[in-house]
Here is the input.
Amino acid sequence: MVVVANQKIAVCPGSFDPITWGHVDIIRRAAAMFDQVIVVVMINSGKHPSFTAQERVEMIKRCTKDIAHVTVDVYEGLLAEYVRLKKAHAIVRGLRAVSDFEYEFQMALTNKKLNQDAETVFFTTRAENMYLSSSIVRSIASMNGDISDFVPACIHDDIKKRFSKKGS
Ligand code: ADP
Here is the structure.
């Protein structure tokens, strides 16, 4: 990523386990508003993801390759530190429902406390993505269901392969 002075940089952090159309929409909208968008797979030792960080990075790259000024990264550590490291101007998060709000509000305030420059910006989900989450995709895939409406076609096979052993 080439950073030009005065460019506005946004960080889109998440688990992306796996990336869904809900994530792609938020990334696309962030890319329309900021000069550079860094999608970062955050390693959380408390979680047991279905895909490795590298697999998630590869899938995000494939799903966002048509969106200009988007780069994909992986980070283990505090998001507030990552924002400082990248000299980013905003943390972009998606809000689906009231249930997301309490956690997101707490995280936004915590990140601001840890790094005064870490502003969190929320994008409201599109109505059609309101119910969509990585965990829903994992559940459907693990029961051999059709995930084609939920994730981009370029990652269908990765997801099917990962869950086919468990589902059969
Ligand atoms: P995390 O474990 O950090 O919540 P996720 O991968 O679940 O990571 O989500 C990353 C970001 O994408 C979060 O801001 C989340 O609210 C947002 N997001 C996830 N699914 C959707 C969706 N369907 N619509 C809008 N935003 C979404």
Q: What stands out?
A: The pocket of adenosine-5'-diphosphate is lined by residues 14-16, 20, 22-23, 26, 93-94, 96, 100, 125, 129, 132-134 (CB under 6 Å). Residues 9-130 form a domain with the Rossmann fold fold (CATH 3.40.50.620).
